[in-house]
Write a structure and sequence with these properties.
The structure is a single chain. Strands 1-2-6-4-5-3 form a six-stranded mixed β-sheet, with helices on both faces. The protein contains 14 helices and six strands. The termini are far apart. Among the domains are: about 90 residues, Alpha-Beta Complex (Conserved hypothetical protein from pyrococcus furiosus pfu- 392566-001, ParB domain); about 80 residues, no CATH class; about 35 residues, no CATH class. The protein is of the alpha/beta class. The chain is elongated and about 95 Å long. Helices cover about 55% and strands about 10% of the residues.
Length: about 290
């Protein structure tokens, strides 16, 4: 039974629980952590904020906003819940869902990126990129600059962008790639900043190279990532590890200041005479030998 309650602003509809399902375009996907406090609140006061739903067929409504309240209502033993019925297409459903959930701290950024990308692909069908980004920003409340960043990451190869997810949310293929390239498991993630860097500076590189670089830069700082990527841009044939070694050598060449004790200094002078080399040149040779692959 659907019971309608008229208010001055809009119509709230009381819908039986078994007529509701999580909408396929709900950003949370029905996921939730058992929330005892919310359940007890609903038992005591009911649901204070109606769920936003849309008709999916003649018998079912899709929950666009309010999946946490829905799950808590089931746990609280409610048989029906207050809903606001909206006639929404898939694109609008995603926008509504994202608008409600984007400010939640527990919504992972990788989900925001996926939904922004999907919305963009829907909206671009009837407008240019600039207008679409502006429309998307107005609809979701996300800044245009952030949307542009998200889209760069969204259009990375699947094997690369999946590395921004925590291990428990990755597909097996991502963990297999880490094991393949690193020779070990790594539960760290690729940061959004580093993913954006790869998308910006290596966008024209082969997909395999992007994957190799992304795996290598998991857990690396932005500073190291910037140096490695810049070196690869200049020398595309270098592996990420070789690129990193080159940055170490260049750094040493730019500012080489080493303090020796008297015994070591005297030994270095003798070695310079023996090899007919300047001290800096000899030390750099030793450094290259030390950091080069064995």
């Amino acid at each position: 039974m659907v019971e309608r309650i008229n208010t001055r602003k809009y119509e709230i509809v009381s819908i039986e629980i078994d007529k509701l399902v999580i909408d396929p375009y709900n950003i949370r996907g029905g996921e939730w952590d058992y929330d005892k406090e919310l359940i007890e609140s609903i038992k005591a006061q009911g649901i204070m904020q109606p769920l936003v739903v849309r008709p999916l067929n003649k018998e079912k409504y899709g929950i666009v906003c309010g999946s946490r309240r829905y799950n808590a209502a089931i746990e609280a033993g409610l048989t029906e819940v207050p809903c606001l019925i909206r006639e929404l297409n898939d694109r609008e459903a995603m926008i509504w869902s994202m608008g409600e959930n984007r400010f939640r701290k527990d919504t992972p950024k990788w989900k925001d990126i996926e939904y922004v990308g999907q919305l963009f692909e829907e909206l671009i069908k009837r407008g240019n990129a600039v207008q679409t980004i502006q429309e998307l920003s107005l609809a979701t409340g996300i800044g245009e600059h952030t949307i542009e960043r998200y889209l760069k990451i969204y259009y990375l190869p699947y094997e690369v962008k999946g590395l921004i997810r925590p291990p428990e949310d990755r597909d097996p293929v991502h963990n297999e790639l880490i094991l393949l390239y690193k020779g070990m498991r790594d539960n760290r993630t690729l940061t959004l900043s580093v993913a954006e860097l790869i998308a910006t500076k290596l966008r024209d590189f082969p997909e395999q190279k992007l994957i190799e670089v992304a795996v290598y830069l998991i857990g690396k700082s932005n500073e190291i990532a910037e140096k490695v990527v810049n070196e690869i841009v200049k020398h595309p044939s270098l592996s990420p590890d070789e690129a990193y070694r080159q940055t170490l050598i260049k750094s040493a060449q730019r500012s080489l200041t080493i303090n020796f004790d008297t015994e070591t200094y005297n030994a270095l002078k003798k070695a310079c005479l023996r090899k007919q080399k300047q001290a800096k040149e000899l030390v750099l040779d030793i450094l290259r030998m030390w950091i080069s692959p064995r």
